[in-house]
Amino acid sequence: MKFLLSASIAVIALFAHNSYAQTCNPTPDCSALGYTKTASDCSGKTYTVCPFDTTKYSCDTTSCEDLGFNLSTEDCAGLYTLTCPSDNSKVFCDKVKPAVTCAVGKIVYDDSKCYDGRPSLHEGRTPIGVVFDPVNKFAIGLKDNSSSIQWYPELNPSLPRVYTVTNADDAMASSTTGEGAYRSFFNSGNTYSSCTAASYATCACSIYTYAGKVSWFLPSVRDFVIISQNKTAIGNALTLAGGDSLSSQYWTSVSAGPESGGGYAAWTYYFSGESGVMAFPYTNYSKVRCMVQY
């Protein structure tokens, strides 16, 4: 009897112990802890996830961009980089990229140096063009100076022409640069009587200034040929710098001489289909894109 009583007490004690061990505190409420957002609510922001329910988020209202993480890993390649804690595709670089060699297809800036990457990486500097002839330090401007303008407003002008090539093959093979032709023309004491406004192509570039650069010229056929040969690299850089793509037909600085009908024409260079030249009467309308010596 004594043995049975002791065993009963032991069993009661055992059950009492097990009942105590299975008593748990309730799981904390994520909302009460401040996790009141969803993953979509916190997209692009700094966030933490509730450890008790991973569908519940808490996030700052400040985005990665607001915190200064507004570049990509590609922008910051080779530089010391900080990554946004909530979006590892958004990064910050501690310094701008260094200057690079001004090769064909590089963006050149107002300090006459070339830099890789988007212009936003180079605060305080203004992009002015894309290099197409690094030997002579020539770059094509970022944007069209005019989408429709005459070469000169008269068919038989009295002004001296910059230089003339009467044959299309000779025009394509010419080694004369727009810069060389313009310097030779103006250094000889010539002036255009109406060069007070960009009213026609022969004048538009000679009076153009941008970002402190004043040495702008109407490209020659030779210049456009080089640009066309490197159109992909130059076009990609123009897009990166926020410029206009090279398309359709542009005036060159090369006169085509008198036409059979008695009027005068100038050579245009076109970027439609297979690139090439075409003689247009002075009074026709075409685009203008200036070049610069950086």
Supply the helix-strand structural class: alpha+beta
What is the first-to-last residue Cα distance?
112 Å
Rg, Cα atoms, Å: 35 Å
Count of helical stretches: 6
What's the β-strand tally? 16
The fraction of residues assigned to DSSP E strands is 25-35%
User: What's the overall geometry?
Assistant: elongated
Biggest pleated sheet: 7 strands, antiparallel
Helix content: 10-25%
> How are the strands of the largest sheet arranged?
5-7-6-8-9-16-11
Return the average pLDDT rounded to an integer.
80
Unreliable runs: 1-16
Could you explain how this protein is built, in words?
The protein is an alpha+beta fold and 294 residues long. It is 20% helix and 27% strand. The protein has 6 helices and 16 strands. The strands form 5 sheets. Strands 5-7-6-8-9-16-11 form a 7-stranded antiparallel beta sheet. The radius of gyration is 35 Å and the shape is elongated. The termini are far apart. 31% of the residues are buried. The model is unreliable at 1-16 (pLDDT under 50).
Key traits:
single chain, about 20% helix, 6 helices, about 25% strand, seven-stranded antiparallel β-sheet, 16 strands, alpha+beta, three-stranded antiparallel β-sheet, about 290 residues
Summarize the structure.
The protein is an alpha+beta fold. 20% of the residues lie in helices and 27% in strands.
